[in-house]
Structures are given as structure tokens and as C-alpha cells.
Amino acid sequence: MKKYFLMLGIWFVVILGIIAGSAVYNHYKSSRYDESAHIFLKKTVPQLSNWDVDQIRLLMAPEALERISDTTYNATITLFAKMGRLLSFDKPKFSQIHLEDKDRAIVEYTIDAKYENGDAILTVNLLHEDGQFKIYHFNVQSSALTN
Predict the structure, then answer these.
(1) Distance CA 16, CA 14 (A)
(2) What are phi and psi of 89, to 5 degrees?
(3) How does pLDDT run across 66-112, given as a tens digit for each residue?
(4) I need a labelling partner for 83 at 20 to 30 A (CA). Which of 35, 47, 113, 122 fits?
(5) Nearest to 79 by CA among 124, 142, 137
(6) Pairing mode, if any, of strands 93-101 and 104-115?
(7) Burial class of 138 by CB neighbour count within 10 A (0 to 12, 13 to 18, 19+)
(8) DSSP line for the chain
(9) pLDDT-based confidence at 15, cuts 50/70/90?
């Protein structure tokens, strides 16, 4: 019986160590980008939420725009425009990083936002290159878009 509790205790400590190690590693990966990404997103989320196709196009990375047709791009922005006016949004939360090389990375953030037609979760992938951010991809998840 004593061995059982000892094994259970060891198992518990190992699981806690994995969880803590994962949190520390995620913080380490995101720390290089967090401050500048938060500043960029604080300025950019309201611009995205104007749902102006031309203004959003200026925020996007050129290679991201090459991957999507104008028809699909315009239809997507029109769909997202159903959210209405942006009321508020929370601090961006680091989600993951996709490192391509030492000078280029795609960093993903999620942002809880409130719009006049409902709450949403924005997922924004930022291309970090040459010390600058551009939007590589973004998505809006909301039940308001299904109505």
C-alpha cells in the first residue's frame, strides 16, 4: 500500500513538472514578441474591425494576400462585417509560434472582443520579419456570424 501512494505521489509530481515546464517554455518563446505584438495588436484590432477591405489589405503580409483570391477575400471581410462595430477587446493572449528561421516567425494570438452584434474570439497570426509585424492570417469566431 505504501508503494502505491509513493508511485501516485511521484506520478503527481511528474505531471505538475510537465505542466510547469510547458508554461515556462511557452512564456520563453513568446517573450521575444509579446511587448511589440501587443502594441501592434492594440493599434491594429480597431483597424481590422472597421471591416474596410482596402484598409485591411494594407495591414496584411503580401504573401498572405497572394494566397487568397480577391473574391474570397472580399466575401470573408463582408461576412466578418456582420459583427458590427467594435466595442472593446481584451489583452491579446499568446497561443503559439511557428518559427521559420531566426529572422522570420509567425506568432499567433487570440483576443476576446465585444462587438455590437455579439462576442467574438479573434485569432491573429502575425508575420514578424525585419523587426516589423504584418498580419499573416486572421479569423473571427462568433455565434453572431451564423445567424
Answers:
(1) 5
(2) -150, 150
(3) 999 999 999 999 999 999 999 999 999 988 887 767 778 899 999 99
(4) 35
(5) 142
(6) antiparallel
(7) buried
(8) -HHHHHHHHHHHHHHHHHHHHHHHHHHHHHHHHHHHHHHHHHHHHHHHTTT-HHHHHHHB-HHHHHTS-HHHHHHHHHHHGGG-SEEEEPPPEEEEEEEEETTEEEEEEEEEEEETTEEEEEEEEEEEETTEEEEEEEEEE-GGGG-
(9) confident
Read off the C-alpha cell for 93.
Answer: 493572449
Residue carrying the nine cell digits 470573408? 76
For residue 107, give the C-alpha cell: 506568432
